Amino acid sequence: MKIYKQIDCFRRNLKFWKFLGIYPLDIDWPFYSYYSFFFILLFSITYNVIFTINLYFLPRHIDNFIEELIFYFTVLAAMSKVLTFVFMSDKIKDLLNILESDMFQPETVKATKIIDSAKAFNKRYWQIYMGVSATSNVVHVMSPFLTHLILKVELILPICSYSFLSDDVKETFIYPLYFYQCIGMHFIMLYNVNIDSFILGLMILIIAQLEVLEEKMSDITADFEDEIDFTSRTKKLANEKLNLKLNKALIHYDQVTQ
């Protein structure tokens, strides 16, 4: 029997997870754990630590403070998602394996259509989310640099002011600091897109499984009504068959709710 792949709607998510160092499945490369550690340390934890230090030294001008505070909580939320994936990688791996188990394989054409529709929604949502997020991020972080190149105005750091550094230090290292912020924010955008879309995708697949369960229960009820006028012996066999289907549906429901 050919296995129906449900998690292939997360194919793009899995590829980005591998690049971003949060891939929960087995991987052949023996140095991936080191790559993952240093990538997350450099572009998530260190990025957040710098934002935290900057808040302490930030001048208490309400407009600037609120703007950088918003970015700070965005970075903090992204780091919490990353650490969740790191520390719960085994559970995420088990979850992906469960979705591919025999219990969640569609048994009818209607069930296959229901899951196909859910998968199509997940793929389309990822494309829209990634397109909007990438465009917004590129415009935000690159517009100061383009303005600097074209109009020769002073280059301003696009995300965080790094108030704990002196003006001379920032002026000397303005380009490395600028591109570190741009690259870091781009990776945070990728974390948000590929984790958020995965969580929503799981919810959509769960709803699809509940619809499949509804179809199973409807079929069980229809079978019972068809068998109700049979002889007592036939009724006994029919009841055993219906009980088997009902038990299977209840196990399916238990797996979905877990």
Please trace the helix and strand order, writing H or E for each element. Answer: HHHHHHHH
- The overall pLDDT average reads 83
Estimate what percentage of residues fall within beta strands: under 5%
Please give the radius of gyration in angstroms: 26 Å
Distance between the termini: 26 Å
Total count of domains: 1
Poorly predicted runs are none
Structural class: mainly alpha
What is the topological layout?
Elements: H1 11-20, H2 32-57, H3 62-87, H4 89-99, H5 109-151, H6 167-172, H7 174-227, H8 232-257
Helix pairs in contact: 1-7, 2-3, 3-7, 5-7, 7-8
Describe the structure.
The chain contains eight helices and no strands. The protein is mainly α. The chain has one domain. The longest helix is centred in the last third of the chain and has 54 residues, at 174-227. It is elongated. It starts with 10 loop residues before the first helix and ends with a helix. The model has no long low-confidence stretch (mean pLDDT 83).
